[in-house]
Design goal:
Helix content is about 35%, strand content about 25%. The protein has about 280 residues and is an alpha/beta fold. Strands 6-7-8-3-9-10 form a six-stranded mixed beta sheet, sandwiched between helices. It has a four-stranded antiparallel beta sheet with strand order 2-1-4-5, with helices on one face. A two-stranded antiparallel sheet has the order 11-12. Helix 5 packs parallel to helix 6. The protein is globular and about 65 Å long.
């Protein structure tokens, strides 16, 4: 990738029906990073994803992807720069291989109606990479939710864009498929150098998988840094209004968040819990 920043936002204001939902003075996602965007319901996460993907137009400000201003790009050029995976994947009777091949449309001359052998090979390679194990002629509506998300990622990879935007890709998945999808996303980031903007509501998954976390509060990026820097009890209580205890994951040592419930608040204090956790075993 020729640009230092994969996504660059400056002086952005956008929303719906004249109402400002998102106010972002500046936000940078460097090329090659896996960045998680988190925040409470209504904080502007999905609005940010829609603005970056070009679905909604800003009232003011600029959004650049790989140095190109999104608002000035055609749909085809935008799709070559940025691949998007939404939280819900439409399931109809299209075959999964044909669905994945749709990722080649931004690269195909308008006068050519059919895919080439090379394009089919690209689609099948990405289906294999995504771990899709059903035959290519399987209708999309016969796939599970997790399999459809993997197909959506395979289609996004088939676009061969350098930046991948995922909007709540694990929202409706069970824990096994959540791990499968995010393991794949992290592998693509590490092995292929694909920049990832991951909009996600699960704080533990954000902390586990991302290089950096951006925490939105009322439409504005409030905190940005490593998971350990951003996911602190004070930050979470300030933005979410929830008391939590944060301890290192026993395997990855990434921050693991535990909510303080009415029942648990009558148990050991945070300091005592931390001492127990870090005590020699």
């Amino acid at each position: 990738m020729n640009h230092e920043n994969a996504i660059e936002i400056n002086d952005l204001r956008c929303g719906y029906h004249g109402r400002v939902i998102l106010d972002v003075p500046r936000l940078i996602i460097p090329a090659g990073e896996l960045v998680a965007v988190i925040g409470p319901n209504g904080s502007g996460k999905t609005t940010l994803a829609r603005a970056v993907s070009g679905i909604i137009s800003p009232y003011r400000g600029t959004i650049r992807v790989n140095g190109q201003e999104i608002a000035r790009l055609s749909h085809r050029a935008r799709a070559r720069a940025l691949a998007v995976v939404n939280q819900s994947v439409e399931a109809d009777t299209i075959a999964v291989e044909d669905y994945v091949l749709m990722g080649r449309l931004p690269h195909r001359p308008p006068t050519r109606l059919f895919e080439t052998i090379e394009e089919i090979a690209i689609a099948r390679e990405n289906m294999h990479l995504a771990g899709i194990q059903v035959p290519g002629n399987t209708p999309m509506d016969r796939l599970s939710g997790g399999e459809r998300q993997l197909a959506a990622i395979a289609r996004a990879l088939t676009q061969q864009a350098g930046t991948l935007l995922l909007d709540e890709p694990t929202a409706h998945l069970d824990i096994a498929h959540q791990v499968q999808v995010l393991d794949l996303v992290r592998r693509l980031n590490r092995e292929r150098g694909i920049t990832v903007m991951l909009v996600i509501h699960d704080l533990n998954l954000a902390g586990e998988y991302s290089d950096r976390v951006i925490l939105l509060d009322n439409g504005t990026p409030r905190f940005s840094g490593t998971p350990t820097e951003v996911l602190t009890p004070d930050n979470i209580e300030r933005v979410y209004g929830a008391r939590v205890v944060i301890l290192p994951d026993p395997l990855s040592r990434k921050p693991r968040i535990f909510p303080v419930t009415g029942e648990s608040s009558r148990g050991p204090g945070k300091d005592e819990i931390s001492e127990r956790w870090n005590a020699p075993r």
